[in-house]
Amino acid sequence: MVKPIVGLQLYTLRDLTEKDFMGTIRKAAQLGYKAIEFAGFYDTPAKEVRALLDELDLLAPSAHIGIN
What we know:
Layout: E1 7-9, H1 14-19, H2 21-30, E2 35-38, H3 46-56, E3 59-63
Parallel strand pairs: 1-2, 2-3
Helix pairs in contact: 2-3
């Protein structure tokens, strides 16, 4: 049996992520989320985001992006 993974759509926390992007991701992991869906990166370098995901053992299988 496959264990379901509960994820968090960061768009729902866009005001918080705009103020503290990395801290919001860290808090999501502390709350028990195992995956996140990005809704922007707020000028954070990809290497830093990847390092944080690895550190927190978080998955990021999708992203919320505009149609443009």
